[in-house]
Amino acid sequence: MAASNVAFARSMARFVLLLSLSIDAFHLPSPRTAAIRPLQQHSQHRNTQRSPRRNPFALRSTLADTVISAGVSIDTFLPQFFWLPMIAFPRAELTKRVNGNLLPVLACSLVHAVVVLLAATDDFPRGIEPIFIFADVFDPTQSQLDAMRRLFELRNFVAEEWPHVLIWDLFVGRLIWLDGVNRNIVCWHSLLLTNFIGPPGLLLHAATSALSGKGLPTLGGVAEDAS
C-alpha cells in the first residue's frame, strides 16, 4: 500500500512538472518569434524617430493665416500715419502731398483685398460661411444684431471687417480734411472723432461747417497745391 502511494505521488509530481513546463513553453516566444521581435521593435523605433509627413494643405492654411494676420496689422497701423498729419498739420505742404491723392487709401485697400481673398479661400468652404450668414443679417424676420454677433465669432470675418472699417474711416476722413482745407473750416476735432468712431465725426464736421456759416460739407474738392 505504501509502495503504491509512493508511486502515485511520483506520477503526480511528474504530471505537475510536465504541466508547468508546457505552460512556460506556451508563454515563451518561439525561436522564430524571438528572432523577429527585435526587428519589429527596431522598425517601430525608427518610425517614431522619423519626422511626420507634412500635409501641404495644412502648410497652405498656416501660410494664409500668417499673411492674413500681417495684412490686418498693416491695415491697423498704416492708416495712422496718414491721419496724424491731417489732424496735426492740415495745411502743411507734406500733408497735401501725401493725402492730396487717393494713393494712401488705395494702398490700404490693396492689402485689404489680399486679406479678403485669403480669408474666403482659406479652409474652403468654411471661408465663405459669412456669405450665408449675411442672409440672416438682411432677413427682417430675424435679429440683425444676433446675426452680426454670429459673424464676429468667425476669425476670418473679423480679419476682413476690421480693416474694412478702418479704411472707410480713412476715406471719409480724407474727404473731411479736403473740405476743411478748401473752405477754411476747422476740422481737426472732426477728424479725430472720425478716426475713433467713424460717422459721428462726419456729423461733427457737418455741424461745424453749418455753424461757421459756410453750409454743409461738399466733400469733393482737391486740396490746394496737392499733387
TrEMBL record:
<dbReference type="Pfam" id="PF14108">
    <property type="entry name" value="ABA4-like"/>
</dbReference>
<protein>
    <recommendedName>
        <fullName>EXPERA domain-containing protein</fullName>
    </recommendedName>
</protein>
<dbReference type="InterPro" id="IPR025461">
    <property type="entry name" value="ABA4-like"/>
</dbReference>
<keyword id="KW-0732">Signal</keyword>
<feature type="signal peptide">
    <location>
        <begin position="1"/>
        <end position="27"/>
    </location>
</feature>
